[in-house]
């Protein structure tokens, strides 16, 4: 049985949903900020960090709205990106939903803060 819990983080993004979605859903886009390298074969993504590899399946997606990846080596392990756009102001936000061990919540939040900072830098926002 898994002891994973779900965390949800929201980041304001100063870019279009289409540009953001490309960085979240493609191997080349993810390699710019998420991992050192990303290889893809069908829906199977191999993320490479400092020589170690981890695989995830792109399980769900809706263009310019969301994408979800399920880790293959973790029971109930996943991460998901949701793009929201406020109808009134036009403000775009990225919502990151991640599964993590309960005792690693703060570490996971810190990692996502760092990763999203890299993403914002790549996007110039």
TrEMBL record:
Where do the START-like domain residues begin and end? 1-124
Q: InterPro entries given for it?
A: START-like_dom_sf, START_2
Looking at the record's lineage, which domain of life comes first? Bacteria
Q: What is this protein called?
A: START-like domain-containing protein
């Amino acid at each position: 049985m898994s002891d994973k819990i779900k965390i949800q983080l929201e980041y304001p993004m100063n870019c279009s949903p289409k540009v953001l979605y490309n960085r979240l859903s493609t191997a080349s886009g993810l390699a710019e900020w998420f991992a050192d390298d990303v290889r893809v074969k069908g829906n199977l993504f191999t993320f490479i960090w400092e020589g170690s590899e981890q695989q995830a399946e792109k399980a769900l997606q809706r263009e310019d709205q969301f994408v979800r990846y399920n880790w293959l080596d973790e029971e109930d392990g996943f991460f998901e990106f949701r793009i929201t756009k406020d109808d009134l102001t036009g403000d775009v936000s990225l919502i990151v939903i991640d599964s993590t061990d309960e005792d690693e919540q703060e570490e996971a939040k810190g990692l996502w803060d760092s990763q999203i900072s890299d993403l914002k830098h790549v996007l110039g926002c």
